[in-house]
Design goal:
By secondary structure, the protein is mainly alpha-helical. The protein contains 24 helices and 9 strands.
Length: 591
């Protein structure tokens, strides 16, 4: 028998292991392994989590009992026994899950033989199939959920603040005996001191209680309902992107390193626990932050209380304010203390800090997640809530950056689509920069006409020395299809060394290159020849050799009109065609 005591609730659950169909030594060994899994040093804190290990141990024992021979001791377990356990599960996903659970139970066990250990821990598990994709809520569904949460917070805020104010007025002596609020104030004072209201023998309120609205109305003037506490937990989970199970256990005690809001950055430090991390890493501190002053100012212009629903700190402080009377009455220390109206078991369980998401969803008109329809209200799923919050915040919360990127954001269709757009824009921008840098400067006819009359003015406009421009116009600086400003000042060679670059592939991508009108015939002819080669070559080979030169030539030709290009096409000489053939054959390149 293994007794498991839940850490949070104190509930003890019995797990019977007396009927495991294996030999006593093997049964005792399996029970010891289970007991270690339930120990204080384990990360298992709930009976439902422990039950999964218990069930897989029972399955393993059944497999061992049906094997021939059945092991009499742990040292008799072989790799064949482990294979038989794996073969028990036909579904790959079920096999993966159960083998992983058995690994957890038997991890670190020195009594397991080496062959069986290798078969269990070193063989690859079946590939995990994602059967259920956790997706973020759509914007419309998200707004429906947020509207319901904000409504609950506003209603309970106004109600409890009015109740606290009424109680304070009574205790300050501001309510006379003839005041219509005196009687409900006295009942609230009694409730704040004793935790209950005057009742009749049947458990209902006395006539005085009934005159003031009844037990429910009076109790709710100083306490949250369980649904309202759940609304606060959901809202804090959304604003912080923490797991709601972690948020629900937040204490009221916290630290304010900012001096209670006097500093530039308002933040409260709240201790929280994540038991699944194990005893060494389960404790951590959550920083519950306020909004920057500038953002609060902008939101206040929209609506007076709008900053409240965007600030985790303001929501947390409001929660502590509204639950303060409940903590004084009950003696509980949690942040989400509330009072149930009735409890069939014992009166001290009327005060609780337990939240029930499914109950809140049902009472607010939201269907269970599995029954939600596309044309109806969204189903409330805490996993989808956190997924949506993380997609909005885009920062890691209680996990590593890699976990956020590879687990939460990677499975998001919205993030993937946005990432594609961002990457595409960046690539287009870089391609545009590359194309802009690769463009050959084309000297227009107007500039050449100006050079014939005022060489210095034309050279200054072209960014060249007058002598260089003059030599370009005379053709002395021509390469194959363009002119070169200075072949001894090349980016492809040290200063003073003649440029060794290819006339076809490098000249058209060189900052020294200049295109002049008298070179248009050979440029058109080369462009046509490259286009003619495209259908007669392997596409990949053509792209590698000629796609870039063709694109640069197309850019040069774009500076001329269609009539100018057509006239140049008819002006190409045999010398031009011979030079083009040499370029394509590589005879002009330095060997």
């Amino acid at each position: 028998m293994v007794l498991f005591r839940e850490e949070n609730t104190g509930r003890t659950v019995r797990f019977d292991c007396s009927d495991l169909p294996v030999s006593p030594p093997v049964r005792d060994w399996l029970v010891r392994r289970l007991a270690e899994r339930a120990g204080a040093r384990s990360g298992v804190k709930r009976a439902t989590s422990f039950r999964t290990g218990y069930q897989v141990v029972r399955d393993f024992a059944r497999v061992l009992a049906h094997c021939e021979p059945s092991p009499g001791r742990p040292a008799d377990i072989t790799a064949g026994h482990i294979k038989a356990f794996k073969a028990r599960y036909e579904d790959p996903q079920t096999r993966r899950t159960c083998v992983a659970r058995l690994r957890i139970v038997l991890r670190g066990c020195t009594e397991l033989p080496e062959a069986a250990r290798r078969e269990l821990f070193e063989t690859r598990l079946p590939v995990k199939q994602v059967s259920e994709q956790v997706t973020a809520y759509s914007e419309d569904d998200w707004q429906q959920i947020m509207t319901a949460l904000r409504r609950d917070v506003r209603l309970c805020r106004d109600r409890i603040r009015n109740g606290i104010h009424l109680l304070e007025r009574l205790r300050a002596g501001d309510l006379g005996g003839d005041s219509p609020n005196a009687e409900p104030a006295r009942l609230l004072d009694l409730f704040a001191r004793t935790g209950d209201l005057p009742r009749q023998s049947d458990g209902g309120g006395t006539p005085a209680v009934q005159r003031c609205g009844g037990v429910t109305a009076l109790v709710r003037m100083l306490t949250l309902s369980q649904q309202e506490a759940t609304a606060f937990a959901l809202l804090l989970s959304i604003l912080t992107a923490e797991n709601i199970g972690t948020v629900a256990k937040w204490p009221a005690a916290h630290a304010r390193p900012d001096g209670s809001g006097d500093g530039a950055v308002a933040v409260a430090l709240v201790e929280q626990r994540k038991p699944r991390r194990g005893p060494d890493r389960e404790q951590r501190v959550a920083a519950v932050e306020d909004l920057p002053v500038s953002l609060r100012t902008v939101l206040e212009r929209v609506q007076e209380d709008e900053p409240l629903f965007h600030s985790p700190l303001q929501i947390y402080e409001l929660l502590l304010e509204l639950t303060s009377p409940a903590r004084l009455i009950s003696g509980l220390t949690g942040a989400f203390v509330h009072r149930r109206l009735a409890n069939p078991t014992k009166s001290d369980a009327l005060w609780s800090d337990e939240i029930r998401v499914e109950r809140w969803a049902r009472t607010r008109g939201f269907p269970p997640a599995k029954l939600a329809r596309e044309d109806g209200p969204p189903g409330i799923d805490v996993r989808r809530i956190r997924q949506t919050a993380l997609e909005i915040q885009r920062r890691p919360v209680s996990h590593a950056t890699r976990t956020l990127r590879d687990h939460y954001l990677r499975r998001s269709r919205t993030v993937r689509d946005q990432s594609k757009h961002v990457v595409a824009e960046a690539l287009h921008e870089e391609v545009g920069k590359a194309r802009e840098a690769a463009k050959v400067v084309v000297l227009p006819s107007r500039l050449l006409d100006l050079a014939a009359e005022e060489l210095d003015t034309a050279a200054a406009e072209a960014g060249l020395e007058p002598t260089t421009l003059k030599n370009m116009l005379s053709g002395e600086l021509d390469t194959a299809v363009v002119s070169c400003r200075d072949h001894r000042d090349s980016p492809h060679a040290p200063p003073g060394v003649a440029c060794p670059a290819s006339f076809l592939h490098s000249c058209l991508n060189c900052p020294n290159a200049r295109a002049l009108p008298h070179q248009l015939p050979i440029q058109v002819a080369l462009h046509d020849r490259l286009e003619a080669l495209r259908p007669n070559m392997d596409p990949a080979l053509w792209d590698m050799r000629y796609a870039t030169p063709l694109a640069r030539l197309s850019d040069i030709l774009g500076h001329y009109s269609a009539a100018e290009r057509e006239h140049a096409r008819g002006s190409a000489t045999d010398r031009h065609h011979t030079l083009i053939t040499s370029l394509l054959d590589g005879r002009t390149d330095v060997r």
